[in-house]
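Format notes (please read before filing issues)

Several people have asked whether sequences and structure tokens are stored in separate files. They are not. Every record keeps both together, in the order shown below: the sequence lines, then the token lines. Line labels are part of the format and must not be stripped during preprocessing.
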Amino acid sequence: MTRILSVGIDDSLSWTGIAAVCRDDQYRKNSAELVCCGMIKGSGKHEWTASAYHIAEHCHEVIMKVLHSQPRFGQMEMRILIELPYTWGMKSIVVARTGAVQKLYFLAGCIYGRMKGTNCMLVQVNTWKGSLPKKITYQRMKEKYGFRFPPTEKNFNMSDAVGIADYGLNKRTRDDFSLPQLQPSAFRVL
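Then the structure lines:
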């Protein structure tokens, strides 16, 4: 029997959400359980690049603790999914002009780089949840996994991380976790 551990990371320079879900049998979709979820606070007293490295290091530490806390029986497959930023409509384009989207790409790259040697995938928002608002994602993940944290703006990053990890459980094969083929439009100059 193969145990699949899927880790989702909803990156943000202020509060990064991280969650792990697992399933013992690849073919029993309803047997998923929430292993852990939490937040990693960005280091506000430092420059944003230092904060990005700080978050990447803490993500790595959390993932290693989760991995070593899992029971050792049979085979274990670990999947790590990191959300890539995506611009939605005019509001997002205005935000992109501030440099915020580029900072999130940098953070995603830092986390991805820190996870070298693991089964890691960068996933765009529209791939795993489409255009659903964070509040609806929160409700769906709460119904599925039964977590009890309140629906605040900060906690929406944590519920999105649960959603990303849940999406990772449903990937069919390890081949789905190859390096992403990013479209040239992902690197638009605004």
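For reference, the curators noted about this record: The longest strand covers residues 75-84. DSSP finds six helices and five strands in the chain.
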